[in-house]
Amino acid sequence: MSHVIIIGCGVVGAAIAYELSQVTGLQITVVDQQPPAQASTGAALGVLIGVISQKAKGKAWQLRQSSIQRYETLIPELEALTGRKIPFNRQGILHLCWEAENFESWEKLVEIRSSQGWQLEIWDTAKLKSICPQVHNDKITGAVYSPQDRQLDPTALTLALVAAAQQKGVTFKFGVNVSNISAASIETTEGKIAADWIVVAAGLGSTPLTAQLNQKIDIRPVLGQALQVNLGHSIGNPEFQPMITCNDVHIVPLGGGDYWIGATVEFPANGDEISPNYELLESVKQQAIAFCPELASATITRTWSGLRPRPEGRPAPIIEKLPGFSNILLATGHYRNGVLLAPATAYTIREMITSMDS
Ligand SMILES: Cc1cc2nc3c(=O)[nH]c(=O)nc-3n(C[C@H](O)[C@H](O)[C@H](O)COP(=O)(O)OP(=O)(O)OC[C@H]3O[C@@H](n4cnc5c(N)ncnc54)[C@H](O)[C@@H]3O)c2cc1C
Fold first, then answer.
1. Element (H, E) at 113
2. What pLDDT is attached to residue 269?
3. Pocket test for ligand 1, best of 30, 40, 225 (most atoms within 8 A of CB)
4. Ligand 1 nearest-atom number relative to CA 336
5. pLDDT tens, residue by residue, 89-98
6. Domain 93-147+221-311, CATH homologous superfamily name and number
7. Does ligand 1 have an atom closer than 6 angstroms to the CB of 50?
8. Whose Cα sits closest to atom 6 in ligand 1?
9. What are the domain boundaries of the chain?
10. Terminus-to-terminus CA distance in the chain, angstroms?
11. What does the pLDDT look like over 172-181, one tens digit per residue?
């Protein structure tokens, strides 16, 4: 029996735990200094920008494609196993085109996706108006609709992954900090634990842990703020509530007249210190009102912020062996797409372990 220790129980660590729980011959322990689904995962909007992403080919597209395919089976599977409900919006993503947006590049993407077996539709303003009357601004020149993209509740998903993995024998240690790692063990606030495999899924915490092994993986925080509003009723057609996005501002319908609006993208000015800039959050809200004017009368019920783990000087995410160590695996630095990429990340880690563990 090989012992796998996963450090971090955000959406990425939880997805890996559940995926590995299906492999025979593995004993799995997940350690997190906090309860599950805090840190970046606790702040995420759960928008899965897959088919409509500009990543047309290569690894970036493969990871997206395999995640969106897996989510279609994963959500019902987890709901059946755990009896928990995971809010999962199957009405797609609607991207609004603003002013001089390049329709030619969208037309090209529609063709590429069609050859890959996915649908994308370009709507003119008349079609947009008839289907989504809540959208209104003279600068909107049309829209791209992606019916197979999704949005889900990242916290509900992570808690369901934990519950399902627990049922399948995974041990979770919450409130336990990992202070040090080596090739054969981890040191924690509850003592040393021996390991055959260590998976570092610690988000921003991955940097200090790998620095101790002189293989620093440099992951820096990018702050995101978002807000929840309530209108008392749905905007537009209550039967058709896709996630609407324009100029990188998302309006996420939650049902019952509740919407999430976000998120800001704020880089640290000096070193790693960032504090939320409330003017930027206000500007995100104003942009949402600019394309969905009815939101002006909504009541703000909650605001929050979180830190996205962004790899410095290299593309996100990092899913590979830690250089110099054959049994320490990195599943980190997912930046803006950790919820989207969690299933594909978990599958990649499973393949790495099972191909070397036989
Ligand atoms: C405002 C906002 C909106 C977002 N919206 C989206 C979205 O719509 N779609 C999307 O796909 N992504 C989105 N993201 C990004 C997404 O949240 C992240 O990419 C994702 O949550 C990363 O997951 P993770 O499990 O790697 O990290 P985290 O969720 O940060 O989890 C890391 C865990 O490791 C633990 N840990 C760290 N160090 C240690 C240690 N030494 N010992 C023990 N435990 C440790 C932490 O306690 C934490 O629980 C958003 C992020 C923000 C902030």
1. helix 103-116
2. 82
3. 40
4. 15
5. 999 999 999 9
6. D-Amino Acid Oxidase, subunit A, domain 2 (3.30.9.10)
7. no
8. 44
9. 2-86+153-218+312-357, 93-147+221-311
10. 11
11. 999 999 999 9
